[in-house]
Amino acid sequence: MKFELSEDQALLRNSTRDFLASEWPIEQARKVMEHDPRGYDLSAWKRLADMGYIGLLLPPNVGGQGLGAIELAIVLEEVGRAAMPGPFLDAVLAAALLAAAGRQDALVNDIAAGKTLVTIARDDAPFCGGNATPTRFTGNRVGGTKYFVPFAAAADALLVTTPDALCLVQKPFEVIALTTFDLAQRFGEVKLDHAATAIGSPSLLDRVDQLAAVGASATLLGLMSRALEITLEYVQTRTAFKRPIGSFQALQHRLADMLLKTESTRSAVYRAAWCVDTDAPDTAIACAAAKAYAGDASRLVCGEAIQMHGGIGFTWELDLHVYFKRAKTLEQHYGSTEAQIEHTLAAAGF
Amino acid sequence: MKFELSEDQALLRNSTRDFLASEWPIEQARKVMEHDPRGYDLSAWKRLADMGYIGLLLPPNVGGQGLGAIELAIVLEEVGRAAMPGPFLDAVLAAALLAAAGRQDALVNDIAAGKTLVTIARDDAPFCGGNATPTRFTGNRVGGTKYFVPFAAAADALLVTTPDALCLVQKPFEVIALTTFDLAQRFGEVKLDHAATAIGSPSLLDRVDQLAAVGASATLLGLMSRALEITLEYVQTRTAFKRPIGSFQALQHRLADMLLKTESTRSAVYRAAWCVDTDAPDTAIACAAAKAYAGDASRLVCGEAIQMHGGIGFTWELDLHVYFKRAKTLEQHYGSTEAQIEHTLAAAGF
Amino acid sequence: MDLRLTEQHLKFRDELRAWLQANLARPWREELRDPKHTEDSLIQLRRDWQRKLYTAGYLGMDWPQEWGGRGATEVEKSIFEEESALADAPLIPNFLGIGLLGPALIHHGSEAQRRRFIPPMLAADEIWCQGFSEPGAGSDLAALRTSAKLDGDHFVINGQKIWTTLGPWADWIFVLARTDSGDRYGGISFILCKLDTPGITVRRLRQITGESEFGEVFFEDARVPRENLVGQIGEGWRIAMTVLAYERGAMSLAYAARYERDIRQLAIACREHGRGGTAVREKLGRLFVENEVMRANGLRNLANFADGNKPGPESSFEKIFWSEFDKRFRDVALDLLGPGGLLERSSAEARADVDWAREFLWARAGTIYSGSSEIQRNIISKRVLNLPQV
Amino acid sequence: MDLRLTEQHLKFRDELRAWLQANLARPWREELRDPKHTEDSLIQLRRDWQRKLYTAGYLGMDWPQEWGGRGATEVEKSIFEEESALADAPLIPNFLGIGLLGPALIHHGSEAQRRRFIPPMLAADEIWCQGFSEPGAGSDLAALRTSAKLDGDHFVINGQKIWTTLGPWADWIFVLARTDSGDRYGGISFILCKLDTPGITVRRLRQITGESEFGEVFFEDARVPRENLVGQIGEGWRIAMTVLAYERGAMSLAYAARYERDIRQLAIACREHGRGGTAVREKLGRLFVENEVMRANGLRNLANFADGNKPGPESSFEKIFWSEFDKRFRDVALDLLGPGGLLERSSAEARADVDWAREFLWARAGTIYSGSSEIQRNIISKRVLNLPQV
Fold it and tell me: Which of A34, C52, C361, D111 is the most exposed place for a label (fewest CB within 10 A)?
């Protein structure tokens, strides 16, 4: 029994951290977020693919690394720490969904190679509530409108969820940009009236949803870890009333709570990942609980980070708002906190 | 415009505080709670009546003082501070209900004089939920079971709520004690199959419920004010690491929040009372919001008071637990927090 | 106890309400989402609005008659704020000039200074920004290091000010500068500087909302006439502390009016999106309840003002209450709305009622500016609770 | 990463589970609500249970073989706690003796002390209570003032100890006493005292739950043989700090097991009372989610122990997490149940599943005893975050 990463896993973490430090220093990440209309950088995307990251979960015969959820969590924690923009998790999940549907063709290979971008189109309404009209698949055509489709404008194909089947739709799409305050992830609204190929039953999503929960909560963990780190550095150096502000007990106690939340998220995320990899009986509970907890915790920690920075924390220049906005956005996607609480209860038989 | 009490009101507050200090020092209150099976002291009850407190809201022609909700709040704030046990608020509300129903008879007079105890029997189930079976009134008889009837064992008559009518039932009752951790208020379960007199429509409760909300939230205000006072004294004298613990910033910030909650409750309670007295358009909202807020705030403040006392706060000997238990109990009665939130929304047209 | 406005105040309120209805073309939220507007045109609109208010006699109401005063008190000012919030009127650009500098000049300035500065300030002909905070002096304001050295009949000013609201549009800045480096409080002076003075540079400071209402102001050997000193040398700290108390009037009623409108909009949005259930209802209800308590606090403060009390350290309660509530409210709103709540105002599908995403971000500033929640709690523990300080 | 128990640990768990099923007559909650029981008879039952566990080899499992050890580690101890919680077994009365004094004797005691005290402690023939806290020394334990003056071959002890769990039933107490008033830490010694020694008085201390598990112990010129000193004079603080680290093993899994049972009972209660709706569901769900995170923390700690790590200051996380959660959980439970949740165990209509009222009150102690949440946060900020201390 061991909670620490294995040697290979630790190596993956270190190499990912090094890779992102050189490819995606925060200045570069922010430049792409603020100035690249696509929301990510194509040549950097190719290098990410060449390093094997996009094919992380795919079997080797389709160009993948055949790794598991723990490795996914390791990489996405680093992605979160670096606040790397782009459709990384989306592409990984789309590839996993295709693989789960038994596809081993050029499409999957091309995703892993970074040549083709596929993301999953899920939301049937732009807001929460019962007013959604599901997209339908009949007679080899898919019709309806999908909202908050990740990187829809850049995608070559979409995996569209319908109550009838999961289906694959090729571009071109009519995409209306849905612009949120999170510049690391771009969304589009896509009107569908397209020929489509069924690739499998909606139940294939179950496992992909677990991977999504692990991936998103690992990203949230990375975000909050880094925001806490930045804050710990700041409170050691920033002085007020002739003392470092980190010496004030009221802040110390809140920093202790931030660390507690961060480390508890870490426990939950890696436990969930381990459950997925070992097909443990409490996998569904562990994944949903990790995402639900991570969303709350990350928003709180990143928010406290801004507060403790005072005025400077409210400036565009400082990076903290990028973390805070990402955290709030991820809370809403890949199964919102509310949805994950419901998943937890359902999986626990409540 | 003036938030401060008028001269008469300030006099009432001072005289009530003096009266309770001599009649109900905390040692006496605790003695009665712990050793008097009735839960209050008959001779003290008589003196309370003689001072005019029970008839506070009643018109002078039935032995009352003809005062209003502000005065009710003033008195109950003091009752809360003193943690006075007994059916005071219950008797005041029952008298108000009878008066609202137009009763000006000996019964009302006797309540005001402390000779007769009447309380209102409302709850149709011991727990929250949809499983309650309403008590019914038909053919001049009332049938059903009422739970958490205040001081049922001591009551001479009960005002029983039914969907059909409010009705008055005379003792004897078969009472099963419902013993909670709050020793200041006694409850009983009463099986009814009794002759009963209709006294009016259930809608008469609306105004009484507003008085109940004011009275209960004023009591909660008194409880939390006193718990905070006790704690402020303690943190000034108790030392740890060679400093008074009140000099630790982590405690200071929490004490500031406790004061903020206490003073905000004060604003809400007296605004609600003033609304009732002036029949202001936002009376229903103000009363429900005051009770909902006071319940949360008082539990939090009394709980923090225990925490800041450390081990000694967890002892029976110290009085704080009496305040804490009263606060949690009042949160559940006279319109639970949940019910008052719903009242607020309904009154605001949501 | 009496929480009813007097006849005189009711009359004031009714006249103001009628005036607002007649004079306010569109609610501010509609201006904000009109694509024709730029940051500059929005400022111009606020400038025009201030001019209108001034002409109608609604500014400086509690000042001496000669400066526009009409014998009003905190009560009229609070009614003004509440009615402006109800009508969703723009915030005047010179709110800091009128809120802080005006009282400073009236109580501590020279007659010449009052004549020179007050009329154009009220008329929005000159926009003022506030130069108190510095990169190294925020919560601990007295740590400020911007220096003013007397050289003949000029001060030579060096240093940097930050969080200067409306800095990029302002004509003048009122500055706290250090005239004696050895005296923490007594070494600070209160000086007025024209922003086009050589050696003064204003830089925009972008906020996390993407807007740039704030600025930074740099001083490099900027020479400012000695006559621009308010009060005596070394009196700056005392003047600033006096007027800062004015900044925090009875704002709770105005905030409660604004929040109630937004809570109601949130409920409408939930209905429109088919979002029901007791969980949604309880969340809306808790927000509404807390907002009612804020309103009760506001009524109490207003009544206290009407009763002749001055704002005291209790104003810290008000600041903590609304700013901490705002954070929670905006967060719950996004959770109820779902992903669409995070949309930029200009995006497709964004709701037109409230700019939920911007409000969520903006709420993070409320617990920081004008004395952070931490500073407010320090004030309460020290000045209200009298807790031992170590 | 591997969170699976090894074959050996699985075998241990399965054997223990079978043993518990065969040997535990009734779950503890059923004993608690059996009206035949008194406080004394419940203690007797716990004593009997400890004896059974001892005979079966489940106590002192990680001690040297001669004292019952079987080469076990924190992993087996944690499994033991979790399985005991799942089976709802009684808490052994000597949990503090075995948890704190045992390690102190093994690492710092004399051979004679071990022979004299360990066997009857394990067999529950002698019950031990802990004499660390004093009325004036709680969070600041080193402020303790109980004095032990050497007089020939006896210590003469004067002072008062408080929060002595099971004090009223104990035979012995292990005490931290001051042998040098000038040396804050180095002036403290660790001494064993028989409670029937003349000059020692035990008084029951009633808790807010109405129970009297705690006591106070008064020392008035109590003469205790010098041979009852553990370690050297002045070593008491060091010994206490070492063994206190043991008090906080990996308890999260045991707590999570117990809380899950109660959360499920709460859901059943809501169903039985016809209490539905999304608000209730969300509350239950949030509790369940948080409890799962506690379980994840527990698995992580367990795996770290199995991996050879010793408990460090991170154990403060565990303490804060469960105790703060417990407070919120028990409060939400009462809100979901309504007035009936506040009933005393013995009252009509009280639910038989869980003593909700008592748990609500008892939860207030969790954030106070064994190092309050405040102390735990101090430890984290100092020893984990290395924040500057002033």
Answer: D111
What residue type is C269 in one-letter code? Answer: A
The tokens describing C212, both together, are: 């740039």
pLDDT tens-place string over residues D56-73 = 999 999 999 998 899 898
User: Would you tell me how many other CB atoms lie within 10 Å of the CB of residue A245?
Assistant: 25
Chain B contact for A241 (CB, 8 A cutoff) = no
Residues 6+ away with beta carbon under 8 Å from D239? D104, D107, D108, D190, D230, D231
- Predicted TM-score (pTM) of the model is 0.96
Q: Cα separation of C82 and C257, whole Å? A: 7
What residue type is assigned to position D343 of the chain?
L
Q: Given CB atoms, is C292 within the 8 Å cutoff of chain D?
A: no
Quick one: DSSP state of residue D371? S
Q: Measure CB to CB from residue C348 to each of A131, A132, A189 and give the nearest one.
A: A189
pLDDT higher than threshold 90 for residue A338: yes
Residue located via tokens 């104003």 = C315
The sign of the CA dihedral B310, B316, B319, B322 is: positive
Unique residue bearing structure tokens 């060096």? C158
Contact indicator for B54, B48 with CB cutoff of 8 Å = yes
Q: What are phi and psi of B250, to 5 degrees?
A: -60, -40
Verify whether residue D235 is a known catalytic residue.
no
CA distances from C82 to A122, B112, C22 (A): 44, 44, 17
Q: Which residue is closest to C282 within chain D, CA to CA?
A: D279
Section A334-345 average pLDDT: 98
Q: Long-range pairs for A175-178 at CB < 8 Å and ≥24 separation?
A: A175/A149, A176/C348, A176/C349, A177/A153, A177/C347, A177/C348, A178/A126, A178/A147, A178/A148, A178/C340, A178/C343, A178/C347, A178/C348, A178/C349
In 3D, which of A188, A152, B181 has the Cα closest to residue D343?
A: B181
For residues D361 and D358, give the distance between their C-alpha atoms in angstroms, rounded to a whole number. 5
CB of B241 less than 8 A from some CB of A: no
Report the candidate in A105, A49, A70, A76 with the shortest Cα–Cα distance to residue A216: A76
List pLDDT tens digits, range C280-304: 999 999 999 999 999 999 999 999 9
> Which residue numbers in chain D have pLDDT < 50?
none
Strand C147-151 to D229-230 pairing: unpaired
Residue range C247-258, pLDDT digits in tens: 656 789 999 999
Structure tokens of C243?
């007027």
- Tell me the residue ranges of DSSP E strands in chain B: 118-121, 136-138, 141-150, 157-161, 166-170, 174-178, 187-195, 197-200, 239-240, 243-244
Which ipTM value was assigned to this complex? 0.96
Instruction: Give percent above pLDDT 90 in chain D.
Output: 85
Kindly state the tokens that stand for A68. Answer: 């598991």
What is the CB neighbour count within 10 angstroms for residue C41?
12
Element (H, E) at C54: helix C39-55
β-bridge pairing B157-161 and A243-244: unpaired
Task: Report pLDDT digits (tens) over A171-214.
Answer: 999 999 999 999 999 999 999 999 999 999 999 999 999 999 99
Tokens of A121: 């189109």
Res D246: pLDDT = 67
Q: Between these two residues, B252 and B1, which has the higher pLDDT value?
A: B252
Chain D residues close to B240, C-beta within 8 Å: 138-140, 143
